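fyi for ur records
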Amino acid sequence: MAKLSILFVVLLTFTGITFAQEATTTGRVDCIFSSNSVNRSGEYAMRIEDIPTDYCTHVIYDNIELEAFTLTIMPSNPQYDILENGWEKFIDLKKNNPTLKFLMSVKSVLTSTFIETAAQRAEFIDVIVSILKEYKFDGVSILWFGYWNKAGFEEGSLYKLFEEMRRSFDASGHPDWEANIIIIIDQKDIDHSRICRVADSVSLLSMLDHVNQPSAANVAAPLNNLLFETGELQNVSIKHSLQKWLNNGCPANKIILGLAFVGPTYILADTKKNGLGSPIIGPGKACSITDNEGSCAYFEVCQKYNETEWTFKWDEENASPYAFQDDQWIGYENVASIERKASFAKSKGLAGVLGMNLSNDDYRGKCGEKYPLTKALWKGFRT
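which gave:
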């Protein structure tokens, strides 16, 4: 863990950055920018200057990674983040929208390895504080992969991390720094009330559990329970999962509902059975730009509208669209589904909504206006 501080002493020499604070009275819309998206080919390379700041109240820079084998913290894209002044360009967004808040994102599949002991947590927090001070970020967002970090729940190190971060932020003279966590909405084993007590805000990503253990063709974030699901998956929905957090003592005004701009894809077992809940035999083909088997970004799905061989459907009960062609099936979000789910979040008195992430929206306007899903988030929650 000693490498943490050493690495960032070097990195902090590259840039000097300033931020301002923002206060909103009508709720927050969090946007995530992934610096890895700059590496996409041709026109699909998304850069900082493409961020739609008029439709975000908070922007999260994704990300700083925890390297599990060497136990170091480093930018996910050092070439762009540091050598090409990505962080400096990020700051320039303040010139046109000084009310924006900026958070840095930290993630790893093995975060709990870094925070097992009080000494490890202290060193981890020291590095976070040094970054926030040097670059004048408004806070940190910990992306917590619960499946690989169960020890964080069982041993309490996750909760201790946030308690100790808050004390450190206050002691450093920055009580306004935000400590946010992004976690799957139906995460098992977590103490809902405790994490909501120690974190300043809790972003619940509604990429629900049935996506990781699919039994049938399904959308990522159904609004209501799915009738065809059984057993543990029977009550997997935004409404049910969110209500569990509320019932277990998490205040609505600390919760941010996260919606993914990427959807699951499947191979149908029988092309004649192509509705929601149809049998599947595996993940669908990768789309051409994101190139991930089993998922496609919205900007890839929407361009299929012009391909006549695709059939598009809408499930009213769950406010979710899906599409199919031969044995390929895609569940996704569109403008109507995002706006409706954002409106639902508003009706529950939540603190805000989160789009994950900007580089999966139609940021080039291939299917019409640019950033239709981000704008739908804004409209659904703030109007």
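The chain is about 30% helix and 25% strand. thats all i got for now
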